[in-house]
Amino acid sequence: DIVLTQSPDSLAVSLGERATINCKSSQSVLYNSSSQNYLTWFQQKPGQPPKLLLYWASTRQSGVPDRFSGSGSGTHFTLTISSLQAEDVAVYYCQQYYYIPLTFGGGTKVEIK
Amino acid sequence: QVQLVQSGSELVKPGASVRVSCKASGYTFTSHTMSWVRQAPGQGLEWMGWINTDTGKPTHAQGFTGRFVFSLDTSVSTTYLQINNLKAEDTAVYYCARSALGTNFADWWGQGSLVTVSS
Questions:
Q1: Contact at CB, A100 and B59, closer than 8 angstroms
Q2: Nearest chain B residue (CA) to A54
Q3: What are the DSSP E strand ranges found in B45-99?
Q4: Is there a contact between A103 and B47 if contact means CB atoms under 8 Å apart?
């Protein structure tokens, strides 16, 4: 199974500052024929289901604010929140959908400093 | 508007069975695969597998075979997760999640169903 390792486990960022979350895959999730990375990012707030933020590693889901961005390719990926807002407090998960079983990273908890 | 509405919380005894439902609306039910995802208390997300809503074929992740059954009723646009011979470690929130058209990633999630296994 593909293992996704997220770092850090948690981070505290001041309002308006940048938050950066990393996701490392044990195998490449880049599909060479399409040059697409089969990786998503989800946001989960307490008591709520996960919400899709980004797919194909960097494509924002409709309605997601543009302060959320994704980058990376192959085995290393990053989720960036450019200017942290209070409503961004949540746990963030990466997930690969290249291989079965689909697998998630362990999650990164983002809090306000 | 896409909606996935799951059944409510369940308190069940060890060894019993439970069935969680996920009713879809707002889209063509048979065009999108439906996954099931488990989240134990305070833990992360685990993909349990999915069911092809067109053919009814299930795919299970390792660790979710045998006791875990995926099924569907297309006449009411509903998928089901049945867990047999429940154990304490099955206590979790179970989510259904729709795959985006033509891909494997989940773009819509149900609200979750809490299953508590306790005597």
A1: yes
A2: B107
A3: 46-51, 58-60, 68-73, 78-83, 92-99
A4: yes
- Which residue is listed with tokens 């989720």? A79
Q: What pLDDT sits at residue B102?
A: 87
Closest CB to B106 among A1, A52, A103:
A52
- Tokens representing A46? 């307490």
Residue B61 token pair: 């992740």
Closest chain A residue to the Cα of B109, Cα to Cα: A49
CA pair distance B62, A105, nearest whole angstrom? 17
Q: In this predicted structure, which of A23-27, B84-88, B98-102, B114-118 has the lowest mean pLDDT?
A: B98-102
Which structure tokens are listed for B29? 């039910």
Identify whether the C-beta of residue A64 lies closer than 8 Å to the C-beta of residue A55: no
